[in-house]
Write a structure and sequence with these properties.
71% helix, two-stranded antiparallel ribbon, globular, four-stranded antiparallel sheet, mainly alpha
Length: 735
């Protein structure tokens, strides 16, 4: 199956899971994610979407369904849009009307709507910024290598200090960055449903070369000069004017006659929009941006690299939340200001990204399964080249949690070093990775050393701290902790007294007083034989509670008396806990047995199956490509026929490899089947030891503890359950 067919299949699978084209309200993409706004968000199930082949992850964020695709996201989104475009327009409109009321009823918090809007506006800008950044990096590369000259140097002379190519290259590279606001205005109006051609025209007016580049001073406001000038390398003013114009256009469309609207809508949009831009929003947002820039520089200038450390520790979690774009574009805007300092913020973010990619490579090195190794490498490579880490996070690190945390920690340390040594980006070049090194001019060597060190630290921490999977002993230990905590197996105080203490301490969070009173009546009867005075105080407390009165002093008195109660039953529970601890130690033997007879063989089998799958895919692609070519060669001369014969010989060689793998898989499968009975017997034996201990607790407490029996069963039989040889037991919560 070729790449295009894989993309089409991916799109069809996505459409099937999200309820078809009729459920799609809007679609766009950022660096690695396809973002969908749906009419009915209840249709898609995220866990089902995650099972789609070639889809690296799926999540809901701020009312959007975000699908992690990777570097091919633009291609997949384009195919997705084409599939949507094939649908009859009439049916699509009918569906939108059908869902109109449902959209109104959706209660989405204002901050989530705001974040969604920001993501929708900034998302389409990312490919533009990547292109502009690479152009600027390419220009810097030519200048540094001596193959080009800087045409912006003061008093530089054309033909002497630089040539026409240098001039044109500077126009291509710098104009895009200066026009960033135009694209932001277009994206804002597009998102809000306004007229995008008018938006582009208004954006071009705001960067008009007719206005003097130094601007025209209007007046002063404190320390700020209010200047009428072109809006180069800024965003906020464009977004704000875009919001105003989009709604202004909708109002005119609603209240004006169609003919009048046709004439006045573009005229008033440009005229009023231009006046508002230059005399209202421009000056106001200029003051706002100056204030933000001052605060931004103060934060990044905190001593000992603290600002950069905070950026490094929070950047990847912000990527998970989907709000990193807001800060990214703020930093890009600051970098584009005249005389701006190198961006330590962006350098710290790039270091954090390198660390997260290192954690992904750490997973590849630590994993024994070829499928996991391949998935980790495939997720990391695009980021290593160009920077985005979404594939690393959602496809590999976050589902395993520890690699994500090690990546965050390594990123914090790398960013801290960036701050301490004052390493900053001089321009924009992609979104990081190897390409991102082109963005450094002053401290390139420092940047390379720190980023690669963060990358290496991410690998080392992940290899040291992450285990591919929890073994039976680890899982049973976790269950034992929960068992001991819930059932008070490890305490000098009687378990009924402990329950009373726990109930009283958490009563303020429990509004169901009737249920609490019933439990207090029961515990009062049980504890009466230990302390009659305690029983009297419980009676007094119950009377108060019936009147909704929580007497804190009385609660403390009851708790202090309950702490003095000890019992033989509690001593027996403590002994059972020690017996369970001994059984946990015995699970080391089970671990060795399972590794010898099951786990190692299963890993080998999975790796062989993965290798066979890849070989079959390769053979399928080769057959598809060579079929037509061989048909033509067969009908030509004898020399070409010999080429066809050789190609068939090569195919026979591939078939031999496939057959050899199939034989190995069959052999090891038989071996695993022969070991299954032994594995079943030994795991059942160890489980029964734990089951007996739980039954002892049931007898003492006169309580059904099937929940913990099920948990221990699933822990001890983990291997058989994971290979779907047996079904897990459902651990129901008991009251």
């Amino acid at each position: 199956m070729n790449k295009h067919n894989k993309h089409e299949l991916l799109v069809h699978n996505i459409l099937e899971k999200i309820g078809g084209f009729n459920n799609v309200k809007d679609v766009y993409h950022c660096a690695t994610r396809m973002r969908l706004a749906l009419h009915d968000p209840n249709i898609p199930v995220v866990e089902e979407l995650k099972t789609i082949t070639n889809l690296k992850g799926a999540l809901w964020s701020n009312g959007e369904l975000q699908l992690i695709i990777g570097p091919d996201v633009s291609i997949v989104t384009e195919i997705f849009k084409k599939e949507i475009a094939k649908t009859p327009k009439k049916n699509l409109n009918e569906f939108e009307i059908h869902y109109e009321n449902k959209n109104i009823k959706q209660n989405v918090a204002w901050y989530k709507r705001f974040i969604k809007s920001i993501s929708a506006i900034f998302g389409p800008l990312i490919p533009f910024l990547i292109g502009v950044g690479l152009l600027m990096a390419f220009q810097q590369l030519l200048i540094r290598s001596g193959l080009g000259s800087d045409s912006t140097i003061k008093d530089a002379v054309l033909g002497k200090d630089y040539n026409v190519f240098d001039l044109v290259l500077n126009i291509i590279a710098s104009t895009g960055f200066k026009m960033m606001g135009v694209i932001a205005l277009w994206s804002t109006v597009r998102y809000l449903g306004g007229k995008t051609p008018i938006a582009i025209a208004l954006g071009l007016i705001m960067v008009s070369p007719i206005i003097p580049i130094d601007g025209i001073k209007l007046f002063e406001l404190g320390n700020w000069e209010i200047i009428l000038k072109p809006f180069h390398s800024t965003i906020l003013a464009f977004i704000l004017i875009g919001v105003v114009i989009a709604y202004f256009q909708k109002i005119m469309e609603k209240y004006l006659n169609s003919t009048v609207n046709f004439l006045l809508n573009p005229f008033l949009s440009l005229f009023i929009g231009g006046l508002l831009a230059f005399f209202v929003f421009g000056p106001v947002m200029g003051v706002v941006e100056s204030s933000l820039l001052t605060a931004f520089n103060w934060f990044m200038g905190l001593p000992f690299g603290i600002g950069a450390l905070i950026v490094g520790l929070t950047w990847q979690p912000l990527v998970v939340l989907g709000v990193h774009n807001i800060l990214f574009f703020a930093a890009v805007t600051a970098l584009g200001q005249p005389g701006a300092n190198p961006s330590i913020f962006l350098a710290a973010a790039f270091a954090a990204a390198w660390a997260q990619m290192g954690a992904t490579i750490g997973v590849a090195l630590r994993s024994r399964k070829a499928t996991d190794k391949s998935a980790a490498v495939a997720a990391a490579v695009p980021g290593i080249i160009s920077g985005p880490t979404e594939s690393c996070i959602y496809a590999v690190n976050l589902p395993r949690l520890i690699p994500f945390i090690t990546g965050v920690l390594a990123g914090g340390i790398g960013a801290w070093a960036i701050g301490i040594f004052g390493v900053g980006l001089n321009n924009l070049a992609g979104l990081g990775g190897i390409v991102g090194f082109l963005a450094y001019t002053d401290k390139l060597v420092y940047a390379i050393i720190i980023d690669l060190s963060a990358f290496a630290l991410g690998i080392i921490l992940t290899v040291l701290l992450w285990k591919e999977e929890k073994n039976e002993k680890t899982l049973a230990t976790i269950t034992t902790r929960s068992f001991a905590k819930e059932e008070f197996l490890k305490s000098k105080i009687d378990f009924n007294a402990n329950e009373l203490i726990h109930l009283l301490k958490h009563l303020k969070n429990n509004k169901n007083y009737e249920e609490a009173i019933k439990r207090l009546e029961f515990l009062k009867i049980i504890l009466e034989k230990y302390d009659q005075e305690l029983t009297n105080k419980i009676n007094q407390f119950i009377d108060n509670l019936q009147n909704k009165n929580l007497d804190k002093k009385l609660i403390n008195e009851i708790i202090q008396k309950a702490k003095l109660i000890q019992s033989e039953d509690q001593s027996n529970l403590n002994q059972i806990y020690l017996d369970i601890q001994a059984e946990l130690k015995n699970l080391k033997i089970l671990k060795t047995e399972l590794k010898k007879y099951g786990k190692s063989k299963l890993v080998v089998k999975n790796n062989l199956e993965f290798k066979l799958k890849k070989l079959l895919e390769k053979q399928e692609d080769h057959d598809a490509k060579s079929f037509n070519k061989n048909q033509k060669l067969i009908n030509s001369n004898e020399a070409n026929k010999s080429i066809v014969v050789n190609s068939f010989k090569n195919k026979d060689s591939q078939l031999d490899k496939i057959q050899n793998l199939e034989t190995k898989i069959k052999t090891i499968t038989t071996d695993i089947e022969n070991s299954r009975l032994y594995l079943s017997e030994i795991t059942e034996k160890y489980y029964q030891n734990f089951e007996k201990q739980v039954e002892k607790v049931e007898l003492i407490k006169n309580k059904d503890l099937s929940k913990f029996k099920a948990l221990y069963f699933n822990d001890i039989h983990k291997l058989e359950i994971s290979e779907k040889l047996i079904n897990p037991k459902v651990a129901l919560n008991q009251k």
